[in-house]
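Can anyone check this?
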Amino acid sequence: MDTFGHCAWGYIFAQTLAAAAPVGSTISDPAFVPLTCAFSIAPDVCADIPLVFSLVARQCPVRSDRLSWVVRELRQRLSRDRSGAFPDWFMTLYFLLHSALFVLAGACVLWPIRSSVAAAFVLGWGAHLVIDAPTHRGEFAMRPLYPILLRPFPGLVVWHRSKLFNWANYALLMAAYAALSRSLLR
């Protein structure tokens, strides 16, 4: 799923939980919803930023024509769905950040420090993984127990190649947002 879609679903999940939470609970913290949104896009952003910087570094000094090369290069790599389109270090980072074991480790580290941050982390990052599992195939197929188990989860659709999926996703997002808005106005 695209970054905006992950953020929007993270917002809907977090706002729904926060609205129903009793005052003083972990998820009634005012930072819970924005943190969940940030954590829902973090798995992709934390993997993509180093990749973009490595591509830009190959084209230094940076000029606008070279930045357009980076965009073309990323589009070309994404249009392929075969092994070897991306560097090994990127795929390792991507699989680590898209692993349920990473979410578990992050929750164990964050919970003693601040439980509301840990809850936002688990909801945002976890929702990202649950959404990505059926929407990624081929090279980007989820490996939920990486690095212990390398076997990929068999995705159902490649989100960036399916117009039907994207239309349905945004239709569901609009319906969920409308329902959430109505419930919050009561």
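Reply from J.R.: I decoded it. The chain has one domain: 3-185.
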